[in-house]
Amino acid sequence: MTKAWKMGTDNVPHQQKAWHDGWLNLAKHLKSPNASTRPAGAAIDLIVIHSISLPPGEYGGEGVKQLFTNRLDWSAHPYYETIRGLEVSAHFFIRRDGALWQFVSCDQRAWHAGRSHYRGRDNCNDDSIGIELEGLEGQAFEEAQYTALVTLCAALTKHYPIAHIAGHEHIAPGRKGDPGAGFDWPRLQGSLAWPSHHFPENNT
Fold this sequence. Notes:
The chain is an alpha/beta fold. It is built from 4 helices and 14 strands. A 6-stranded mixed beta sheet has the order 5-9-8-13-7-14. The protein has a two-stranded antiparallel sheet with strand order 1-2. The chain has a two-stranded antiparallel sheet with strand order 3-4. A hairpin with a 2-residue loop joins strand 11 (117-118) and strand 12. The chain is globular.
């Protein structure tokens, strides 16, 4: 059962115990098998923002949760045949209404980044936390999603040494384009009140 949170003036939830073994109490939990141990000494200092919807452009269904838990019926939609057998996950998923789900402990390695490079390091899965926003690459996101994202990022920085935040497009340029032009980076920076060096260049 998810416990209620009391929000402070800094948008950081106040609760006696906010985390348990890398699981955030604020989120609803659905454990994914698509996870692995982080390398020894991983800093966990990067947040990666993605966008996803299944089927593409359709919202509110169970497709994303089913994909992350290897329960997606590949025959249920023509698009699913193009990703048949895919085994992926993210730490968090934020629906259009702001509902927050967690699939992998942040102490573990989720499978969200793929082949990637950022801030001088390869394999961003090793030391990042992946956040999927329900949406279509390049299109706009909802007010409730920004509110949930800001709260989540603030909570993460209270528990992990977060020093960078980027989109999938920044860690895998030319291969990935999400969250895309519809994501408001200046808005996120303003809401978090983080210095510009935390963010990708040319987005703030």
